[in-house]
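We were asked to recover a plausible sequence for a given structure. The inputs and outputs are reproduced exactly as logged, with field labels preserved.

PROBLEM: sequence recovery
POSITIONS: 189
GIVEN STRUCTURE:
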């Protein structure tokens, strides 16, 4: 979670590296996903560090507008540094979810709570690749260096990490982790 201006700068740089973006005018101005992620991090910084209320409201307005344009329902303070959103399209994340550093996230992902339990949301480790169409729900824990296969429905914990899971319901389908599938934007500790 961003707790200082230095954290804010580190998160921005980690996200840039994870997205493989160069600091060109074209990328800074016209890459909508990178712009969304920069707004996300700015809003996190302004919220967590008692930033200027007027700037926070303006950033929140811009963030909401960009969220609707891209189809994202992603709350603040969920993702660690090194977030990489692959595509525009529907992504829904519950505010109680916690996801570590270096997450690669694809379209049509839904991460939520178990029915009737408002705060029973998943906790996901570092260096995770979440493929298109993944659905995760409930009070579950997923370890680091995991791959969650396309269209998987994850409703139980896999705390050991370093595996690939997939299917409905999800089960271990390979002992291969996320090496080679994500770009490390931040050193996970």
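RECOVERED SEQUENCE:
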């Amino acid at each position: 979670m961003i707790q200082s201006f230095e954290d804010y700068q580190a998160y921005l740089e980690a996200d840039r590296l994870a997205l493989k973006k160069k600091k060109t005018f074209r990328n800074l101005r016209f890459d909508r996903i990178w712009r969304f992620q920069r707004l996300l991090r700015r809003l996190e910084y302004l919220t967590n560090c008692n930033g200027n209320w007027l700037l926070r409201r303006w950033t929140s307005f811009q963030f909401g507008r960009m969220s609707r344009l891209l189809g994202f329902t992603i709350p603040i303070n969920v993702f660690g540094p090194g977030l990489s959103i692959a595509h525009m399209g529907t992504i829904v994340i519950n505010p109680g979810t916690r996801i570590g550093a270096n997450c690669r996230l694809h379209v049509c992902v839904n991460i939520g709570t178990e029915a009737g339990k408002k705060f029973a949301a998943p906790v996901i480790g570092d260096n995770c690749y979440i493929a298109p169409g993944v659905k995760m729900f409930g009070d579950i824990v997923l370890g680091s260096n995991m791959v969650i296969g396309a269209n998987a429905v994850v409703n139980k914990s896999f705390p050991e990490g370093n595996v690939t899971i997939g299917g409905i319901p999800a089960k271990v389908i390979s002992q291969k982790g996320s090496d080679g599938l994500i770009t490390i934007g931040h050193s996970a500790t």
